[in-house]
Amino acid sequence: MYRKTAIRLTVQYSILLLAVLAVFSAGLYLWVDDLFDTQYIQEVENKLGTNDDLAVTEQQHRTVEAAAEVAVEQFRNVLLLADITAFALIPFASYAITRRSLKPLVEANESQKRFIANASHELRTPLAVMSGEFELALKKERDADYFRNTIISSKEELERLNRLTNQLMELQRIENNSHKAMTNMHPISTARLVQNVYEEHRKKFVSGGFEFANVTSNNVGKIVGNYDLLQTAVGNLLSNAIKYSKPNSLIQVGAINEGGKVAIYVENTPDQRLNTKDTKQLFERFFQAKEEFRKKGFGLGLAIVKAIMDVHKGDIEVSRIDDRLRFSLKMRP
After folding, report:
1. Which pLDDT tens digit goes with each residue over 281-318?
2. pTM for the complete prediction?
3. Which structural domain range is residue 73 located in?
4. Residues 170, 189: one domain?
């Protein structure tokens, strides 16, 4: 489908460009021909008459006309050669430009297909679990404990659905209200932002057996942004870190001045090594590097972070330092 669309657009663009080129070349040739027939010959004869202080002879007139015809013929040949070259190159150039223009649309379409497939899977899974448990419960007589466990399990699946719905709504809200968020941006103390997020998550990290440290630089600059959205972004990075870190490892959150920008980062020691392909896809909706991670989340947290950074015209980068992984949110002060 992509190839057929590219070819169809190439044909349309080529026909349009070639028609414009043909009209332009014909008009240019007629203009030059008329210019030589009128102004050029007259100007040359005037100069000849002025220089010799004599009227231009018939022989001189024929010579000037012949020179004008030769010049027009040479111009026509050059113009024809240029048109032939353009006629040969335009289809190839149009095809290359068309493919390049369609590439983002194709990638967006593929991303949308993956999103729909993954979202459908995530929504169906808890429903299938609940349906199976209810069917088993109704097949024969059960005691109260069995029904209680079935209800508890179904409640957990409903909570899972509720979390998924909330995350999808949060992502949609950020994308739909990006203009509103941009108008609600103010100077923010980066150090205070990081400290507040650190305090908010500290108990959860300590109770989970992790070492948790705020290593923000003393002279880190301010940033301009939407405080609530940035707090959500850093919080999502921390939630992601606690899910995928080695037990009892060190998790750090901090901020530094880096290359003319302010970088807020979260650094941890992951329990699974990410390959290069996974790193590039981390910020896609529902992407999870390993199938066994699926029980830990939906793969929407980092997609929300990316959406927030897009609103702020900032960058999100992933880097590896020895066996540790660093997620950095970079913004101009």
Report:
1. 566 655 554 444 444 555 677 888 888 888 888 999 98
2. 0.56
3. 2-111
4. no
